[in-house]
Amino acid sequence: MSKYPLKKLEIEEKITELINKMTLDEKIGQLNQLGPSPLGGFEISLKEKKQMLEAGRITKEEFEAEVSEMKWDDREDDIREGKIGSFLSIRDVKKVNRFQKIATEESRLGIPLLIGLDVVHGLRTIFPIPLAESCAWDDEVYEKSAEIAARETASMGINWTFAPMVDIARDARWGRIAEGAGEDTYLTSRFAAAKVRGFQGKDLSAPDRIVACAKHFAAYGAAEGGRDYNSANMSLQTLWDTYMPPFKAAVDAGVATIMGAFNDINGIPCTTNPYLYNEVLRNMWDYDGMVVSDSCAVSECLLHGNVETRADAAMETINAGLDMDMHSKCFIENLKDLVLAGKVSTETLDKAVRNVLRIKFAAGLFDHPFVDEALPEKVLLCKEHRAAALDAALKSIVLLKNNGVLPLSKKAKIAVIGELAESRSDMLGTWAAMGQAEDCVSLLDGLKNQGCEIIYERGFNVSGEFDGDAILKAIADADVVIAAMGETKDMSGEASSLADIGLHGRQNEAAKLIKAAGKPLVSVLFNGRPLAIEELNDTADAIVEAWHLGNEAGNAVTKVLFGDYNPTGRLTTTFPRHTGQCPLYYNHVPTGRPASAVQHSCKYYDIPVEPVFPFGFGLSYTEYDYSDLKVRVLGDKIIATVSVKNTGTVNGTETVQLYVRDKVASLVRPVKELKGFKKVELKAGEEKQVTIEVDKNTLGFYNAKMKYVVEPGSFTLWMGHDSSSSLCTEFTL
Ligand code: BGC
Asked: Were 126 and a residue from 402, 415, 550, 694 both cysteine, which residue would form a disulfide, CB within 3.0 to 4.6 Å?
């Protein structure tokens, strides 16, 4: 049960009153979510027109002329007639007010619209992509960026974001790994709760907060082969131990909406899965929010092949407990007949309508549907928001390798190579809402802002361009070379799964060329997923994982390069050495033949089984020593203490991580699992005792009978710098 229930007596009474006045059509309208649709100008789709342009079948001028004739149908008549409950993907405050005016003043019952947009890591002020930000291991950072995103979004009159994505992602091929907090269930659950707090605040009706949406329910990240939209086949134990807890954390934090996933789980598409909505959300978790389908997912059930007609898709979906149809129109076109034929009961329909209206009341839309159109200008990308974006970017950077070349001296002659160094747009990353490339600081901009004299030569890019002579010429006089490498923003995100997560194009060749010329090489990686960078790790002197960091990317990276900021970020995903290792994650089960030097063990014949960088990993400009680990069990708490010493010469912040293994259990258990962490500031030479408490109840799992149990017995407990740390002790429950 959520700590912030949406169900309140006075709201329920208002909803009842409203529902009693509604016609069948008006009720169904509330369950329909649509966006503007392109009208005229084309006899074939825009996408195909673009392909024709790329293939040279039409000229740029012809393409542009056609696009300029294109008009959007804003479906104003449908809003007026009460046929739309929620509108999505508009980014114009005047339009938002206009639509709300039509809905509240020109429709019969005056019900305001839920206006939704994917505000995933900022609206106009763009923060690091979620995967990057998760590397901050910092609830405050997670919450703050959502709070700012909410403030900007609300200023535009947009009242609903389709975020956070809380899918666990263990397969780096999956492009949407960029949108979540990585591979770990405990960390993602903390991330989920913090994001919900940030977007919604304590009072959902506050003018600077918006409705959040935990997505995609469920197990979307387990897409087979890492291929987006693919099937997820798994035991119920894995579903519950690994994929469900972040959603539960979001529900406990009061998330007002949840989005169903595109995939099927064990043969049932999530969209029509009564177990997920009626059983888990409503019966088991007492969830009082609203559930929306993913885009067109209702009609896509025909392609899944578990229904024959669009009417059946609508029937199965609403009967499963899903409330709102995003984009497919199956509800609006079929629910009336289904209700009249008794295939969908009035009770089921009313329940869904009630769930939608509850959000509208809780968000205060009936009281204040409009916004001040002058507000966005004051709020969007204001100084305070940019400062928070810089702070988040700094905390997201992970230093992966440093043989001493970093931090750089500001007096050094620096050559910068690689097209990504000049790219502003790629800093935005996937799902950048209203983010603008011109608001981003590229790596080159960042270096210039520091007053550095640099020689820049593009030299190579991620799609295969390579000019060895130009590279050699540019670096000839340099003391050190910075190579900007990785991925463009389109290479991760939705529908951007990769079969090869190595460095694309001739990037490794460029790195080797620079090293062969005898130059120290600092590789700065911009990417939206873990990359298989074993070769680069062998070549480069330093590797800075900079992800897609948003507006302040270049400033943040530069501060790290020069040591003005001592990096603190830690990986939340394992970095494989080869795509063939995917899915690769630290909390795997041991097997009966754990990987070892023995041939008949759980490993590969051709490459080592270990990753290049483990979960939790990240260097800084100082080092930490761990000693004196102690653990005691006190009632329902496991209390672990360790001494951590900063043994270097600069101040730093260490993220102390706590892992546990249930040594013998009725089902096989992971070799270790994160159960707690704490960030501690340590001055050079300083030593501190760090204590982390773990709730006994979090050490359980779903047993063979699908009962959550904490089995008595011995446990191993580690505290250390990352998931490969070896300082451990034992305790017994
Ligand atoms: C994505 C969702 C997103 C929706 C609306 C879908 O394709 O899977 O995550 O919220 O589009 O833009």
From this structure: 550
